[in-house]
Every structure is written in structure tokens, then in C-alpha cells.
Design brief:
With about 200 residues, this protein is mainly alpha-helical. About 50% of the residues lie in helices and about 5% in strands. It has 8 helices and 4 strands; from the N terminus they run αβααβαβααβαα. The strands form 2 sheets. It has a two-stranded antiparallel sheet with strand order 1-2. The radius of gyration is 17 Å and the shape is globular.
């Protein structure tokens, strides 16, 4: 589903990683439970299977990391948004720093290094090269995390030509893409309903 966007500047000290995940906090209480992750994925157009797997994978993988000092795991696998920067995995792009801030030079580097077909986006093959280029030795968890994130983004955000556009990727990083996807899904649904009602 191609997504149009218009981005505002990101403040350099703003924790955009928190904004990135806040979409999935469906009740805005600062904690994301697996059912909220599921609901968020469904809201952006993911199927039931992808939404279910994503909810389990994401919450089980990140919950403990965002709950420092807790001796026992919470079997509801909550993710605490205020500590999301602690859940940053290795083998990533470096676009978020250790405090969850956006690093523009790292973002631009993705497209300067890997976008050869079109400087404004990544093809499936270029995305694969990018994912492989970020791998740190023996960081298997980071490899899986990076691979999964980027493949889901490509699946959901590529345009009709199979290109993952720069503004779509930027929208994921700043948290605005998910809201735009919901709006576009609702517009398409309304348009379809209007067409059926005629």
C-alpha cells in the first residue's frame, strides 16, 4: 500500500523511538500489551496471522528489556514505552541513537549506500543488501529482529512498483506512517462502501 507523506522536522533531542511505538499503545497508558500490538497491526492493514505472530514476537522479545530491575517476567509481556530505548537491538541501522533520538545522517546513509535503482527508495534486493550490511558478527537476535522489522515494513509499505520509498521509511522512524496507513485504510473502506451502495 503506497503511503503519501509530508514530514515535519524532527527535533534533535526528541525521543522519536517512543513516538514510533506509541501508536501501538491503544489505550494511551504508556504500556503496550500483546493484544494492543495485535490491534495496531490490524489497524494498519495486516492480516490476522501476521498481526498475531508480530504481537507475540515483539512483546515477548521486548518486554523484559523495557522492564529493568524486575526480577520475574510478566507473563502478559508488557512493553513500557518510557524504556523502549533499552530494547534497541544490535545489527540495526543506527537511525535511532541509544536515547531513542533520530540521527539524520544515519537515515540518509541508508539511501546513499543502498538505493541504486532509485535514490528515493529501496527495491527488495537493495533492502536485502541493506539488512545484510547491518549484521554484526554473531548477533543472531539482532539479525532476526532487523530482518523481521524490515520485511514487514516492505510488505506493508512498498508502492505498486515494489519500491520502499524514503518518505515511508522516514514515517516509520518518526511514528507518523502508522497513522497515515490507518487513514488510508479507512478512506479505501469508505470509498468501497460508497461504490457498493450505488
Amino acid at each position: 500500500m503506497p503511503v503519501e507523506s509530508a514530514f515535519k522536522a524532527i527535533e534533535s533531542d526528541e525521543n522519536v523511538l517512543q513516538k514510533h511505538v506509541a501508536f501501538f499503545d491503544r489505550n494511551n497508558d504508556g504500556v503496550i500489551y500483546p493484544w494492543e500490538t495485535f490491534q495496531g497491526f490490524r489497524a494498519i492493514g495486516s492480516g490476522i496471522l501476521l498481526s498475531s505472530v508480530a504481537a507475540l514476537f515483539i512483546n515477548m522479545g521486548l518486554s523484559g528489556k523495557t522492564r529493568p530491575g524486575k526480577k520475574f517476567p510478566n507473563l502478559l509481556f508488557p512493553i513500557e514505552i518510557q524504556n523502549i530505548n533499552m530494547a534497541k537491538h544490535g545489527s540495526d541501522s543506527g537511525v535511532y541513537d541509544t536515547h531513542g533520538r533520530f540521527v539524520p545522517s544515519k537515515f540518509e546513509e541508508i539511501f546513499e549506500k543502498y538505493a541504486r535503482t532509485n535514490s528515493d527508495g529501496l527495491t527488495a534486493d537493495e533492502l536485502n543488501e541493506f539488512i545484510k550490511g547491518n549484521r554484526e558478527p554473531k548477533d543472531y537476535g539482532g539479525w532476526i529482529g532487523g530482518f523481521t522489522e524490515w520485511k514487514i515494513l516492505y510488505y506493508l509499505g512498498k508502492d505498486e512498483k515494489g519500491l520502499l520509498k524514503k518518505d515511508v521509511v522516514r514515517g516509520v522512524y518518526d511514528g507518523s506512517l502508522f497513522h497515515k496507513m490507518v487513514e488510508e485504510k479507512e478512506k479505501a473502506k469508505a470509498s468501497k462502501k460508497k461504490h457498493i451502495d450505488k
